[in-house]
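USER: Please consider what follows.
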Amino acid sequence: MTDLTWDAIASHADRRYAAAGGALGWPGDLCAALTRAAEAWELRPLELFDSGVGHPVVRVATAGGEAVLKLAPRTELAAQARVMQADGGRAYARLLAWDAGVPALLLERLGAPLHEVVPDELEQVRVQARLLKRAWEIPLAVGERAGSKAAGLVAILDRHGRLAIEAGVVAAARALAAALASGEGAEVVCHGDAHSGNVLARADETFALVDPDGFVGERAYDLGVTMRGFLPAVAERGPGWVRECAAVLAEETGLDADRIWAWAFVERVTTGLFLRLLGFDDEGVAYLRSAEPLVGDARLLQ
């Protein structure tokens, strides 16, 4: 956008909310919320980051340089603020300020996403695994106790499985999710969505995580999310490459490769359903299609 204003950012967000069919939205006057944060922290908008399906994320000018302003519902941002504050900039982006009233976060300005800096997919998941191991050092008391993640995914599959292209994909994902639920542990404060787009470069050539969910869960779940995407690699290299990806993550962390693989498969399917539910049909179908050649391996793990 040229001549970017808070009003233009709010209008753009409203159009995205409408495109999502009402599944997203801002409870009140979004422009007023943006303006309040800008006045409190003396910010000027520079660039609207237009990726993802969520609420506004804006590169801003501050008195001391540049930062990133993020708005989202209060409960979501409060969890992110707690996690980032506890981490202190070791694995996550540094938290510069937090206003629960807006609600808004001000974060350090980071660079390109991991997949643009590190082209090799297996090296990407190595970087993500090493970052997550550092992130998991946050005390459990910081995280939200949200119940069984696997049981929640079973509920998504039951409620929205009709959006799948092929019923066998949903059946395989449901069976794996039910099996994961029976042995699920509350081990660490999970990031919850640590795909390569949520890993950004720092100026010193290291990386930092952004957008943590901050719930208490098991480590294998976090690792499964890191490998649920890579749709071109899955299409080109097939199930063997997906098994190799899980093996790399297991090697980096000492966790069970099959359990990582199972979480990734369930997340691949539920992400496809969720994207279709939000109106992002092409992306959702692509995720669901990418799961189809993996069903055979899924059944072996059931």
Notes: The chain has a mean pLDDT of 93. Residues 85 and 95 are 6 Å apart (CA to CA). The longest strand covers residues 65-71.
